TrEMBL record:
One of its GO terms (molecular function) is oxidoreductase activity. Residues 179-253 form the Cytochrome c domain. It comes from Kurthia zopfii. This is Cytochrome b/b6/petD-like protein. Keywords: Electron transport, Heme, Iron, Membrane, Metal-binding, Transmembrane, Transmembrane helix, Transport. The keyword Magnesium does not apply. It is a multi-pass membrane protein. Its main location: membrane.
Length: 255
């Protein structure tokens, strides 16, 4: 710090040589014309770069708003949550037999704990001043292994996820007044349709049954023959009750 010239930004990357002695870099004053005041020159550059990225993110969020789902329902046990992309590799890990069910503690804590603990130890395993990757095989190997594992598990999670079902279960559905006194709703509840399509017919493991655009005959045919992931023979009641159910579902219109 020189009187009247303000604070100077100085980089210090002292390392230890092979004998354990600290090696100090040359003083910044030995590089005339290659240093700058920390305030305001260096900070101004940092703020300008930060402002560019901030504006970029704001434009991105305006152009592509975050997708919203329906209101959370703690009673809907058929809902399958999906974490953000940066946790997908851990989400995929919990799907494997050795890391799920009774071994959930292994997938949730033991394996991630060992992996991140190993990464924390890397700086202490190789303290040499060498910067070329080929001269530092141990840290580079750890980092490449961790990176490859995260990329593979993230890819597997995205490739194997049922995105169509996820879109259906999280879809925002307009409120529809359900007449629970309707005979068709009584058949709907008795036939366990509620388990897949929700108590308000808003959908869940199965699609929503509001605004289907289907006629009574089409609904009756689906109940007998099935459609998509719904197998045939799901309906076990009488034809009279099925007609009530079909009339009830076909009449559901969002306001």
């Amino acid at each position: 710090m020189h009187k009247g010239k303000g604070m100077k930004f100085v980089g210090d990357s002292r390392v230890q040589d092979k004998k354990g002695q600290k090696v100090y870099p040359p003083d910044y004053s030995e590089y005339p014309g290659k240093n700058e005041p920390f305030w305001p020159d260096f900070l101004l550059k940092e703020w300008m770069v930060g402002a560019v990225f901030l504006i970029g993110y704001l434009i991105l969020t305006v152009a592509h708003p975050s997708p919203l789902e329906g209101q959370a329902d703690p009673t809907n046990t058929s809902y399958i949550p999906l974490p953000d992309w940066y946790f997908l590799f851990l989400y995929q890990l919990l799907k494997y037999e050795f890391a799920s069910g009774p071994y959930n503690i292994i997938g949730a804590m033991v394996i991630p704990g060992i992996a991140f603990g190993a990464l924390l130890l890397v700086p202490f395993l190789d303290r040499g001043p060498e910067r070329r990757p080929l001269k530092r095989p141990l840290p580079v190997a750890f980092m490449l292994l961790a990176l490859a594992s995260m990329i593979f598990l993230t890819w597997e999670s995205v490739a194997n996820h049922d995105w169509a079902a996820a879109k259906r279960q999280g879809e925002i559905v307009k409120e529809v007044k359900i007449d629970e006194a309707d005979p068709g709703y009584a058949v709907y509840s008795k036939q366990s349709c509620i388990n897949c399509h929700g108590d308000k017919l808003q959908g869940g493991a199965g699609p929503k049954l509001i605004d289907t655009g289907l006629s009574d005959k089409e609904i009756i045919k689906i109940a007998h023959d099935g459609v998509g992931t719904m197998p045939a023979g799901q309906y076990k009641g009488s034809d009279e009750d099925l007609e009530k159910l079909a009339k009830f579902i076909s009449g559901l219109k969002s306001e």
